[in-house]
Amino acid sequence: MQSAREFNFDGLVGPSHNYAGLSFGNVASFSNVKSASNPREAALQGLAKMRELAARGFAQAVMPPQARPNFRLLRRIGFTGTDADVLARAYRESPVILACAYSASPMWTANAATVSPSADTFDGRAHFTAANLNNKLHRSEEHLQSTRTLRALFADERHFAVHEALPPTSAFGDEGAANHTRFCATHGGKGVEFFTYGRVEFDPSAPAPKKYPARQTLEASQAIARLHGLDSARTVFASQNPDVIDQGVFHNDVIAVGNGNVLFYHEQAFHDEGAVLNSLRNALACVEAELTAIRVDSQVVAVGDAVASYLFNSQLLTKPDGTMALVIPQECQENRAVARYLEELVASGGPVDELIHFDLRQSMRNGGGPACLRLRVALTGAEIAAMHQGVIMTEALYDTLVAWVGKYYRDHLEPKDLADPQLALECSAALEELSRILGLPGLYDLT
């Protein structure tokens, strides 16, 4: 067994960060529609989180934003002329579609891909599959750049395999690591890969929500497990509770989070809680680990409070001494029921003995907390050496990116500003410089 470290690749918020309310089923996103955003503050809040966690000794890296606006999308659906003409006509005829082309949602890198570490795969390489995100127009083309970025960061095919996204049909709706968790005794040892889904395409009798869409299918999860060459004895598939999807739990990471051998979850997270726990215990026995389940009862924290505070959209991180810290948004401390529960959790003598909180209000208002912002990648020493080094968070990189944000990002952005051709030029110039900062020439196709 090789030793390994788990890197968190946090999404760097892009300069077009705005509140368009495009994500039906995401209560926070929908409730802030058309309000003014602050892209500069959003990026700085995310960078502060990355810097702090890196300073605490956690392995931290940056996932660069995607190019916006998406002129390719706008031209494919009939908006023609100069770039300025395209923006003006799109704003005049369909401002919602223009907002889709400007979406900064790639900041939530938990949706970028599903990752299986080399200890789990058939060929001993780390495998990545970019999520197709086909449930929402504004996210449905992200996989193109996600694949390109992942192949730039993990280019050495001796160590890494980056797969294309699954077919963009409803049968293979895939939302990435937001519906995937890995359990293990150590990051370098064999683990159990846990996939959750909201519906089954080819079984209409299977549980499914009635109000909001289920974005992940069982068929997509099974396809990724095949692509990555996972051992069926150490792979678990679980149905989300459709009732909580209809309460705003659009991804499993809004109602559960796991790390090491710990599952921190709400009692209403799964369709059949007992069966899920039994399956995880049996699979973990294969790697000589025992599941530690931290269950939060509805009487203690209601689903509505969990969604409003993003209690479970937290990062559960293993510290050097083997205990765990829970990285939470500031909103958790402002919700009375959640704050009281967290005090009791830390004092309970269980695996979680520290809370680390951050102000991520700009992200939270758009519907994403700490866990949404990061993609977890467990890497061996050889794999760390083989990946692109320019994205690893350091004090020097942090200082450079803070200055870059100050140079290019606006501090106020309203829906009407998306029609401004100057904003498109600012976004393009920002990403050209960012690719140089990160040492990733050719990362973007800005033509």
TrEMBL record:
Q: Which domain of life is it from?
A: Bacteria
Which Gene3D superfamilies would you find in this protein's record? Succinylarginine dihydrolase
Q: Per its record, what are the GO molecular function terms?
A: N-succinylarginine dihydrolase activity
The catalytic activity, as recorded, is: N(2)-succinyl-L-arginine + 2 H2O + 2 H(+) = N(2)-succinyl-L-ornithine + 2 NH4(+) + CO2
Q: What is its EC number?
A: 3.5.3.23
- Pfam families registered for this protein in UniProt: AstB
Residues in the active site?
A: E175, H251, C372
Q: Which family does it belong to?
A: Belongs to the succinylarginine dihydrolase family.
Assembly and interactions? Homodimer.
Q: Which NCBIfam families match?
A: arg_catab_astB, PRK13281.1
Q: What is this protein called?
A: N-succinylarginine dihydrolase
Species of origin reads Massilia antarctica
